Amino acid sequence: MIKKTILVLLTLCLVICTAACSDSDEDTTSSPSNGVVVNESLTPSKSTPTSSPIETMPISSPASSSAAISAIDLSTAIADIVEKVQPAVVFISAEVETESFFFNSSSTQTTSGSGVIIRSDGYILTNNHVVEGAVTLEVTLPGFADIYEAEIIGTDPLTDLAVIKIDGDDFPTVQFGNASALRPGNLVIALGYPLALEHGTTITLGVVSNTERSFTLDEATFYDVIQTDAAINPGNSGGPLIDLNGNIVGINSVLAGMAQSIGFAVSSNTAEPVYEALIGDGHRVIRPWLGVHLQDVTPALAADADLPRQSGVAIARVEEGSPADQVGLQVRDVITEFEGMEVTEATQLIKELWQYKVGDQVNITYWHGDKEKEVEIILSVERPE
């Protein structure tokens, strides 16, 4: 019996010793991803020595060592991205004519903003409000002594975007990325020329707070924007918002004046088709029109206006002869689905409508009184400017 007990104890000791030796051989230097993917082309690979004397190893916890390596790699990757993108971010100076209250005269003032070169032959994407009303436009590129005169190719006030052009070839460019791939918490980089600071862009780093957001601010409606805490100041307008692949995911457009660390950029999912339309035939964006004025439905509005639903998009007005009028949509009807997708906000419905062309047919589900109805609408009319 005693011999059996001793044999069991010896076996247990052997198992424990084997497990301890196995644990000591495990690799504890691998870095956790923390949700950050570093572009391999931007980060040189590092070889790990096959052996290292124990006495030369620094005394630190494996976790802190891995975190430090990740932070260094991320910092290097961001610097590489900025170095790649920065040459294509331009400073825009606009001379704008303004009316004077004295003797019905006019005067000019100089405003400034930013832009990003999309095509090597000088096509630049910026904000509409940067170039609106400009008598002359001048563009300066980082590292270039020359000042280029620019012409306005096309504008789209609805999305606050515009395309201008400078003469030349082989300019540095940046490509559009996929804003749909962004998630709250992702890092983004904003580049531009705030406060008219020339001679090099200002770079700020932040996180994405929200995507595909639409809202009204100071009587202007913004569609499909990315919210970020990357610092965006006056003059940043028109500059690019860049992801960690070095691609444009937004065009910096507006900052919330009553709040800190809240800025917005027009999503590349909206900016890219607008850019393509503005450089195409006609140099303008053609969108279909339903012919209705819409309002978000809330429980309070539903009670006040005696609406049939407490959520959805209510029709506040129908334009006579419009596609909506032709199929019988009326004031107080509540739209709940567009092409099979639930809609709860007017800006959401309008943004979805942009995916279609004049002449397309769409299905709308709505409530008229206590009855749910479905109707097919031919988008036969272009949205008025």
Q: What report would you give on this structure?
A:
The structure is a single chain. The protein has helices at residues 2-25, 62-85, 128-131, 268-279, 299-305, 323-326, 346-353; strands at 89-99, 106-119, 123-127, 134-140, 147-156, 161-166, 187-192, 202-217, 220-228, 240-242, 248-255, 263-267, 292-296, 313-318, 334-338, 341-342, 361-368, 371-378. With 385 residues, the chain is of the alpha+beta class. It has a six-stranded antiparallel beta barrel with strand order 1-2-3-6-5-4. It has a six-stranded antiparallel β-barrel with strand order 7-8-9-12-11-10. A hairpin with a 3-residue loop joins strand 2 and strand 3 (123-127).
Largest sheet: 6 strands, antiparallel, barrel
- Overall pLDDT metric: 81
Low-confidence segments, given as residue ranges, are 1-60
Q: Strand share of the residues?
A: 25-35%
Order of strands, widest sheet = 1-2-3-6-5-4
Shape: globular
- Enumerate how many helices there are, as a single number: 7
Helix share bin: 10-25%
Question: Key terms for this structure?
Answer:
single chain, 385 residues, alpha+beta, six-stranded antiparallel barrel, disordered N terminus
List the helices and strands and how they pair.
Blueprint: H1 2-25, H2 62-85, E1 89-99, E2 106-119, E3 123-127, H3 128-131, E4 134-140, E5 147-156, E6 161-166, E7 187-192, E8 202-217, E9 220-228, E10 240-242, E11 248-255, E12 263-267, H4 268-279, E13 292-296, H5 299-305, E14 313-318, H6 323-326, E15 334-338, E16 341-342, H7 346-353, E17 361-368, E18 371-378
Antiparallel strand pairs: 1-2, 1-4, 2-3, 3-6, 4-5, 5-6, 7-8, 7-10, 8-9, 9-12, 10-11, 11-12, 13-14, 14-15, 15-16, 15-17, 17-18
